[in-house]
Structures are given as structure tokens and as C-alpha cells.
Specification:
With about 425 residues, this protein is mainly alpha-helical. Helices cover about 75% and strands about 0% of the residues.
Length: about 425
Amino acid sequence: MLTAALIIALVIALAALGVSLAYALGTAAVVAFVVTDSLPFLAAAPQRIFSQLDVFAIMAMPLFILAGELMNRAGITRALIDVAMLMLARLPGGLGHVNIMTSVFFAGISGSATADIAAMSNTFVPQMEKRGYDRQYAGAVTAASSVIGPIIPPSIVLILYGAIMSTDVAALFAAGVVPGLLLAAALFATNAWYARREGHPGGAGEERPPLGPTLKKGAPALLLPVIILGGIVFGIVTPIEAGALACLAAVVIGFAGNGLTWASITQALRRTATLTGSIFMIIAAASLLSYLIVLHQVPDDLATLVANIHVDGIWFVLVIMLTFLLLGMGFDFMLGLTVVAPLLVPIAVMQGADPVAMGLLICLNLSIGLITPPLGGAIMMVATITGDGYWGLCRRVLPFVLAELAVLLLIAVFPEIALALPRALGLL
């Protein structure tokens, strides 16, 4: 346990100094090897790193990142917004509902909270402010709804979890559908409460886009998530082939609608390479940490500790949820995904927890961490893009955080909510 404490202390210290997560993890790992007299084992580091990255399922991640980048540049996001406006604009707090629904649509394409925020912040925040909404509230809704992105498939986070924990990605995708829709329902309810409390605009007189042109333009984008998810869960395509299909569809739709150019494709490729490289560096650094932790039998020590305090079953799952909630308040999600999950999840599975349910719960928990102060990554992105104050956004987003935590607790106590669909599809 001393090794784990040393690693965590080093990472915290380096992060506090402003060192990026990949370098903080890598430095902490090398120093920990030296301090714990494990330096000879460091010779195996290259093999360890490449074995962690040489996972077939990870190949799907850059493809879905690229698909999201292409669709954002092709104007598909605008088409999805118009469809959501057609459905929800005339409800009280209509634009807030539209913001959330667009995130549901976009989640079925990009699988990324970052892509959601990049697409929505510049579009929704000015429009909501123009229609009479508080600007910080508009930013808070945008940040909160971005959490749906990593849960509704295809999901980059679920792909990474499946690769790291050797869990079936198709089953994880199917398990994410109902929780993702429950998240949306919780956000709708919270937005409706805000609308009544603060008198947000919306109602029968709200302007809506024309029915025919909107559906015609939005139909290809709406069909794409169905094709991707259906292809994966029914075994027609692998997640990697689905990612390639999404990229091809984005290019075809983009050129057909005159929204995509070769220059924008080049920009999307560059952005995808940057994001993928950053994620791979974090995975490589974290693999060294997990290697050292295994060498010093930290999982065995942790299992002994849990046995001694007699925490098991649903209570141990709730302890894991609290652990990841605290991690989400101060760290990037990759730390929990690549270092902490491999320690705790096998213990929960040995106690009878379903590995797919645990994967969904952890990814949902880490995603909620994106909007949890003091270091909510999604709030920071919205604040940077819109120029709004970070702490003001934190205050406005707290009711949405509570709503999403209620969904997390519901699924933790009743995991069959997430597992019913994969069971029905024969994936479990």
C-alpha cells in the first residue's frame, strides 16, 4: 500500500505544478521504480507499454474521434440541432431541452464529451443568451449534457475500458443505451425545474424550423447511430469497422451537402492525430504504473484490506463509486480508467458483480467527473470556449450534477437496468 500512496502523492504533486497527466504519470512511475528498488524491472517497460497499446479494440478509438471531427465540420451538428428544435423548441425552457436532445443525437455519432462541447458551445450558448437565457446557465446545460456523449454508443471511453479490462465492447455498448437515455431524462427534468423557477423562455409561440427540409437534411445523420449500433450489437460489423463506416458516412454526407472540403478533412485528420497521440501517451504512462503496482502486490493488499473491513456486494460497489467520484473531482478520467479500475473491478467481480455493469458504472462515474468541481474538465472547456467564469459555471451546473449522480446510484443499486438490453440481444 506504501507504493500506491507514493505514486498517488507524486501524481498529485506534479499535477499541482501544472504538469500534463501523461508526464505526471510517467515521471511518478519511474521515480516509484527507483524508490522501491524495482529499477531492474524497468527494463521490461517497452514490452509492457506496447502490450498495453497493441489491443485490437483500441483501433476503433481514433476512427470515432475522426468521425466526430468530420461531422462537426460538415455541418451535421447544425442539422441535428434543427431536428431537436422541431421536437422540443415550444416547451418551456425549450432551448435547454434542445441542447440536451442534440447531445443525445450527437452522442450516437461522436462518442466523446469533448466533441460534444466543441460542437455545442459556440452554437448554443450565444443562441440561448440571445433568446433570454442566462449565459452561464446556457454553458452549464452544455457542459452537463456533454456527459451523455461517452455513455450512449458508440463510446470512446467504453472502447478503452473494454480494451483495458478485456470486456466485450458490444455488450458495453448495449449496456450504455438505457443509462444514456436515463441521463437525458434526468437533465430534461432538471432543465424543466429551472425553467419554472427562473421563467425561461419557450412555449407555443417559439419559432421552429420547417418540417420537410429539416427532416430531409437531418435524416442521414439520425440514421447513422442506428446503423453503427445495430451493426455492432448484431455482429454485422466490429467496432473498428463501425468507426470506419462512420468516417465514410461523414465524408459522403458532408460532400453531398456541400459542407465538407478537402481542407476541412485535413484539419480533422490533424486534430484526430493530436487527440489520439495524447491518449496513447497517457495509456503508456499508466501501463508502467499498473506494472509496478502488480509487482508490489497492491491488488492482493487491497483485497486483504477489503476482506478485513467486511465490505462486499453492493456496499463494495458503492465504495468503488465513491472512490471514482473523488477521483473525478481532481484528475483526468484516464487515471481512473487505466490505473484504479484494474485494481478494484476484479475484486468486485469476484464478489459477484457483473463485469459489464461495472464497466458501465465506472465509465458513467468518470464521465460525471467531467462536470464535478474543482477540476471538471468539461466545465473548463466550456469556460474557455465561451469566456464565462469557471466558478460561476460550477455553481449553475451543480443541480445537473446531482441529477446525474441520482442516475448513477439507481444503476449501481439496480444493475439490471443497464444489463437488460445486452441480455435481450444475447450479448451476456
